[in-house]
Amino acid sequence: MNGVVNMMITKEQKRLNSIKEIKPLLFYRTCHCCDNDFVKEKIFKVDRWGVNNSVHSWYFCKKCMSTKEDVLNEIDTDECIFGIAYVDSQVINKKDYTRINKIRDRMVR
Q: What 3-state class would DSSP assign to 58?
C-alpha cells in the first residue's frame, strides 16, 4: 500500500467527533440538562436533527456531562427521537426507551 495507512473510522467514532467542545465568549448558551446559562466556560455542542430535516444546536455543560461519551449516552437514552445531524439518520433507535415511554404514558392519560 506504499506506506498509506488504511484507517476505518467507526460509526461510534464519527458520532463522538461530531460533539464539539466550545467556549462561548459573547452569547450565553443554555445547558439542555440543567437549564443553566454558560458563557466563558467550556461546554459541549452537538447538532441534532429536528422536524423536516432542520438542524438544532444542543449544549451540555461540564457539570452535567463531563465527557463526550456522557453526551453520547444522553443522546442515546433521552426522550428526543432525533439523531446527530449529518451522522445519524434523522430518527434513531435508542439504547433505552424508558424516558420515551414515560413521556408517551403522560400523553395518553
A: strand
Is residue 102 exposed (0-12), middle (13-18) or buried (19+ Cβ within 10 Å)? exposed
What's the confidence (pLDDT) of residue 1? Answer: 47
Whole-number pLDDT of residue 67: 96
Residues 6+ apart with CB under 8 A from 61: 31, 33, 34, 36, 38, 41, 43, 44
d(CA 7, CA 109): 51
Give the three cell numbers for residue 37: 446559562
State the amino acid at position 61 in one-letter form.
C
End-to-end Cα distance, the chain: 62
- pTM for the model stands at 0.83
Can you tell me whether residue 11 is helix, strand or coil? helix
Q: Tell me 10's DSSP state.
A: P
In order, the DSSP letters of 64-104 are T--SHHHHHHHHHHSS--B-BTTTS-SB---S--HHHHHHH
